[in-house]
Each structure stands twice: as C-alpha cells, then as structure tokens.
Amino acid sequence: MEIKFYPKIEKEPDGSIKTNAKGMVSLQMVIHHNGERKKIGTGESVFLHLWDKEEERVDRKHHPDAAKINAKLNKLIVWAEEGEGKVRARDGYATVSQIAEYIKQQSKPWKYKEQAQGKQELKRDLESLYEHWKEVNKDYLTAESLRKYHQVVNQMTTHKPKVTIDDIDEAFMRKYAAALAKQKLKSGTVQKHYQFVKEMRALAGLPSKEKWLVHKTQYSPQLDLTADEFIKLINAWLPTEGLSRERDMWVLQAFLGLRPGDFAKVKPHHRKSVKIADHGEVQVMEIDQGKTMNPVQIPLPPLAVRIWDKYEGNFILPTQQERGRYIKKVATAAGLNRMYVRRDLIGGKVKETFIPVDKAISPYTARHTAASLVYEGSGGDDSLAGWLLGHAQHGIKGTTGVYAKDKAARVLPKILAAWEAILGDRVKWPG
C-alpha cells in the first residue's frame, strides 16, 4: 500500500486557483493498494507556496499550525495501515474503499456514532431530519449557515406541508424551482436550496450527487474602476488609520492583480529583484501558480514598492466582510459616486439595478480593475492583462530557463509601462 498527499487544485472561471477565504487549498490523500486507487479528503487546508512536494508535508518553520497539520497526516497513514490490517484479518483482503471507510470512521467518530444508532430510528420528515442534522453537526455550523438552512426548511414545508426527504425527487425539485423563480430569488440564493437538499439526502442515506441536484449559479459582470476613479482612491485623504490601511491594501492588491484569497497569501519573501536587459533591476512579486507550481512574476510599479516598503511586506488583513465595509467607506471619501449597473439573474430573468460605485465596490473589484487598466494603458494588449491575472502561466507551462526568462523580460517592462501610462504624474498618495 502506498499513501500520497496532494494539494487539491481547482480553477476559477478566470483560470486562477480556487482557494478558501484564507487563501488556502484543501489537501487530499490518495491510497494506492493492489492496483486500486482512491482519493479522500484530509480535512486540512494548506498554503500552496508552503507545501513541500518532496516530503509531502507543510513547511515546519513558516506554515501556520504546521505541527498540527503534519501530525494529522502521520495519523492518517497510521489509520490507513490499521484499517488495511483489520479488514484483511477479517475478510482475507482489503479494498481501497474499505480502507478509506475505516479512515473516515476514525477521523469523524461523532458522525459514525450517530449512524450506529440505526437509520430506522431517523425520522424522514424534513423538519425532524433538519433538527437531527443540526445536532450531529452542532460543533461545525455557523449562525449564518443555520439561518439560511432554516429559511430553506420553512420554504419547503410551505411549498409542501409535512414533506419528507423521500418526497424530494427530480419532479419535486422541478416544481419547487419554478416556485422559487416566481419569488424572484437571486440565482445564488436558489443554490442554497439545492445544497440543503444534498445535505439532507446524504444524511438520510440517499444518493446526493445526481445531475438534477446541480444548480449552476450565474453572476453578473464585475465592477471595475476607471483610471480617474483609481487615482482618486489613491489620492484620497482618509480620516482613520484603518481606512488608510485598507486603501493601501486594495491598491497593492490591484497592482498585483490578485483575488482577495491569493493576496492573503503574499509574504515578504515573495518580493524579489530581477535584472532585465535595457531596464536594469525590476522589483517583482513571485508566486507559484498552477499544477506545475511554475513561478509567475508580477512587476511592482513605484507606488506598489512604496506601499510594500511601508508595511515591510507584512499584510495583516481583516475578514473579507470587514474589508468590504472598509473599502466602501474609502470609496465614499474619495467621491466615487458614478452609477454602476449591476445585473442579477433573478427568477431566470436578468434584473438591472443602478447603484453608486462606493456601494458596489469590494475587495474583488481590485483584480478586475487591474485587468481593465493594464489593458487600457497598453493600448489593448490583452496578453498583458492575462499575464497579470495568472492566465499567461499556460504559455510557459512545463518550460524553464531561457524561454521563460525571455518571456518575462519582454512582458514585465510592458506591464510597468501600462501602469505608467495610466498613473502618469497624477499620483499624490498620502503615504
């Protein structure tokens, strides 16, 4: 039997790596045994740049909770070996699925203790099932999750009183989805209803991955700032240190072209100095992206260097919700009141809402602003925006040495020139 650990790499629609709110990816365990192979989750998440591919462990010195995570991985190996031995002693042969099931039982004893009481005891009406689910998962749920799922229960029992989990089939969901559409709920809200049904079906021992349980959420195009708005944000006088800090973080995030989760991963050691012919020393941020972990270099314009130096590369960030509230206040102070047309898919129809920029801006707006401004400043060179957003990593995938360096040497000065064209001499950053 062979055990391997891998970070789980999933891509966003824009090609960037999907991470959680902390900028981490989940870690998966792969069991190879007697010609079979099975993947299971470890329950741990890691920072990609602090994952040691050779040792298959996180960096002991720099990764948060490194001792705890590495100990968990060691424990998973012990459980796998125990499970294989026990099943083989009982049945004469152990499959990877049996080994995986043993690991799950050891890692989530509370769940299997509930199951051991017998599924016959589990009431099938939706309200009782929901109460049971809350009790089983009480140590793992947030108040927000409980609030949203309670709303779903109320909606479903109103749609069909005394509904049971066995009543909820493909035909039921078609009628239910039509009822939700009449309420003109947003696509993301409807997605919560489908997710709830999956949870309840899994708890009741029913299949939960059928195609009819998939609801594709559709989002409207994201807001991006104009060049004038971006400069107003940079130059704005702000009344508190907290707002000034968020402005600085937002602007630096834009220069780096990162999503909020990726920006949270940036550390002092990611900044480097590279020599480029005819341009001398160029300050860059270098991070690893993609399955190949190829380095991607993002050049730092002069203002980005000043912001980085101010905080010495240590960017302690609040939660995404808090950042969202702060940047809206920053935008208000900067006078960003242009009316923005937000389009939401509601009840299968697109609804347009006019809201001012200072009420629509969020940490995610920084990345979209970066792409549009670099595209504008370069005279329409979309390859530069692609590089900035990490898409251009595919152009050097599997390559190193002269080719990759040559491409960087051609691209990095063009990105800096694009920012210079946008900013010119109009920047009066308060510092």
TrEMBL record:
InterPro entries according to UniProt: Arm-DNA-bind_5, DNA_brk_join_enz, Integrase-like_cat_sf, Integrase_catalytic, Integrase_recombinase_N, SAM-like_dom
SUPFAM superfamilies assigned to the protein according to its UniProt record, in alphabetical order: DNA breaking-rejoining enzymes
Record domain Tyr recombinase: where: 220-417
Keyword annotations: DNA recombination, DNA-binding
Keyword field contains Cytoplasm: no
PROSITE patterns noted in UniProt: TYR_RECOMBINASE
Protein name, UniProt field: Phage integrase SAM-like domain-containing protein
